[in-house]
Amino acid sequence: MRSSKNSSRPGWWLLLCAAAACLPLPASAIVWPTPIRRFASCRILVGKNASAAVRQSQELLTLTQTRVRAATPPGGNAAAASRMASLYAVMADAQGMLELDAEARASAEKGLALAPDPRDPVHVELRLADVAASTTVRALPLH
Fold first, then answer.
1. Domain limits at 104?
2. pLDDT of residue 75
3. With a threshold of 0.90, does the pTM exceed it?
4. Does some domain include residue 82?
């Protein structure tokens, strides 16, 4: 015969699971999801089709700026600034691939304004894009 003590365990466990399922989710996670997949595909696109990467990063940047103006994003403005700096880094890389050095440098400078900490990986990436855009390789004459 089973004891009444053991037969009540599944009931309490089920009640505990049901209570945990009813806990409220943070509203910011529902209101503004991070477009991680689109950002990752934009990063990959730089090496394959730099023109498309520039367009896509501009679209994501516009979307992010619009959402920042509309409401405070999840993680606050610091998270949005980091996200925008990352998009400027992608844009600078793609513009550098297209040999649009002035535009690449401008994008890198905008991103650096959003990611001023030199220990931030995004800052390092933007510095590299800035150096690459400002360093032009000129062909030597074949005389």
1. 32-134
2. 55
3. no
4. yes
